[in-house]
Amino acid sequence: MARKKIALIGAGNIGGTLAHLAASKELGDIVLFDVAEGIPQGKALDLAQCAPVEGFDVNLKGSNDYADIAGADVIIVTAGVARKPGMSRDDLLGINLKVMKAVGEGIAANAPNAFVICITNPLDAMVWALREFSKLPHHMVVGMAGVLDSARFRHFLADEFKVSVQDVTAFVLGGHGDTMVPVVEYSTVAGIPIPDLIEMGWSTKERIDAIVARTRAGGGEIVGLLKTGSAFYAPATSGIEMAEAYLKDKKRVLPAAVHLSGQYGVDGLYVGVPCVIGAGGVEKVVEIKLNAEAQANFTVSVDAVKELLVACKAIDGSLN
Ligand code: APR
């Protein structure tokens, strides 16, 4: 059986890390595409030289030509600019919207059957715009945010409870921004919900509230430390988890920015909710009943995403 093909659009910090992870896991042959000449070629060659040491058998190619993504099974998009200290994800909107137009047209012309995972920020607006520009079916275009946000939440919770991260599950809804909604009632240690753990004396409401706030600002904390860019290891591994769910038809239940058509009372927007990802792309949106507080926070988050789309449409009239 021929190997699968993974195209990575954007060969920067996340793109390079994605390529290394995809190669180590032998997910398929890899094309690294970027507008910068030499960067994707250099990274592909460097990574190919890991193969004898790590023992993976995949082809790696760097390219500045969209023709090289032809036939890709999965495309992961990180093209664009990343945040610097003092910038919000929304500050990236104008520049990255133009990038999504070029990328969307490149995908439509060369790999219209791919499952596309967008990571570029501001995520909920960029994944929507990428879908509009590429015209791929909605269930084949998703945004990676929830896996990362819940990984951040799980890390902080495991640290608080002094238990393995493996036993912590977390539930995060809404847009990938400061309005995201970590839902404590659905976040657990080995199935025990956090409110029960508070009652058991494992933590306090105040400490959990602080963890929720730190999770919401999780990306900004890293930008502030790195100063020259934004997080890339955890975003990359989160993107790979989604790609693997599709390629191996795992039917993983993962939080992702998916197109909603009435679920959660939202129509025509990409917002973070749990969904099932398998060989059919987004196979199902998991629609749970939210308590009043989570619903109110979710509405605030959805409104923030709506505002971003208004801004996108003002910049590019073809999106109206
Ligand atoms: N087409 C392809 N690649 C592009 C384009 C384009 N039109 N415009 C820019 N790029 C490339 C850049 O040349 C760079 O190599 O995108 C790459 C981005 O890499 P980094 O600056 O290292 O950014 P990274 O940390 O990988 O983050 C990428 O993901 O999480 C988000 O906020 C983050 O939007 C940012 C994106």
UniProtKB/TrEMBL annotation:
InterPro entries reported for this sequence: L-lactate/malate_DH, Lactate/malate_DH_C, Lactate/malate_DH_N, Lactate_DH/Glyco_Ohase_4_C, Malate_DH_type3, NAD(P)-bd_dom_sf
Record CDD domains: LDH-like_MDH (cd01339)
Active-site residues (renumbered): 176
Reactions that this protein is recorded to catalyse: (S)-malate + NAD(+) = oxaloacetate + NADH + H(+)
Residue ranges constituting the Lactate/malate dehydrogenase C-terminal domain according to the UniProt record: 148-307
Residues that, per the record, bind substrate: 83, 89, 121, 152
GO MF entry, a single one: L-lactate dehydrogenase (NAD+) activity
Residues covered by the Lactate/malate dehydrogenase N-terminal domain: 5-143
Keywords: NAD, Oxidoreductase, Tricarboxylic acid cycle
UniProt EC number: 1.1.1.37
Annotated residues for binding of NAD(+): 10-15, 34, 96, 119-121
One of the GO biological process terms: tricarboxylic acid cycle
Gene3D superfamilies: Lactate dehydrogenase/glycoside hydrolase, family 4, C-terminal (3.90.110.10), NAD(P)-binding Rossmann-like Domain (3.40.50.720)
Role played: Catalyzes the reversible oxidation of malate to oxaloacetate.
Protein family (similarity comment): Belongs to the LDH/MDH superfamily. MDH type 3 family.
Protein name: Malate dehydrogenase
Organism: Sphingomonas paeninsulae
